[in-house]
Amino acid sequence: KMRMHEKREFVRWRIKSPARFKLANNPQDERMAQLRDISISGAQLSLSENLRLNDRLDMQLDIPDENSPIHCQAKVVWQRSAPEEGLSPFICGLRWTELRDEDRDSIFQYARSAAPEALWDRWWEQIK
């Protein structure tokens, strides 16, 4: 069995939170998804439809403890089907293409408060 090579340069934090998005080529059609994890470089979504590689998304992320949603843009960098997920049979990986510094800070602050031990453990593993 081949092991997938881990290409992430930033720690990702598990998060279950709603996300709204529009495809850049269809800005009238808002769709829903669920964040699975998030980092300061990207995120992973569960959704009911299959997106294509390089699809560009205009997104609103609802981060707990933030008064207003984070607005950002992302590109689909991988996708796969996940029939075991039930209601959301697809998963895709996103890389932020546009994310304001204050929103990046909000993601980091949320992750730090939500998972300080997991964050520390992962960070420590990376420098050992």
Question: Topology of this structure?
Answer:
Blueprint: E1 13-23, E2 26-38, E3 42-47, E4 56-61, E5 70-81, E6 90-98, H1 101-114, H2 116-127
Antiparallel strand pairs: 1-2, 1-4, 2-3, 3-6, 4-5, 5-6
Order of helices and strands: EEEEEEHH
Number of strands: 6
Strand order within the widest beta sheet: 1-2-3-6-5-4
- Spans of at least 5 consecutive residues whose pLDDT stays below 50 are 1-6
Distance between the termini: 27 Å
Major sheet, described briefly? Answer: 6 strands, antiparallel, barrel
Q: What's the Cα radius of gyration?
A: 15 Å
* Structural shape: globular
Overall pLDDT? 80
**Portion of residues within helices:** 10-25%
Number of discrete helical segments: 2
Q: Roughly what fraction of the amino acids lie in strands?
A: 35-45%
Helical/strand content category = alpha+beta
What this model shows, in words?
The protein is an alpha+beta fold. The chain is 20% helix and 45% strand. The chain has helices at 101-114, 116-127; strands at 13-23, 26-38, 42-47, 56-61, 70-81, 90-98. It has a 6-stranded antiparallel beta barrel with strand order 1-2-3-6-5-4. The longest helix has 14 residues, at 101-114. It is globular. Mean pLDDT is 80; it is low at 1-6.
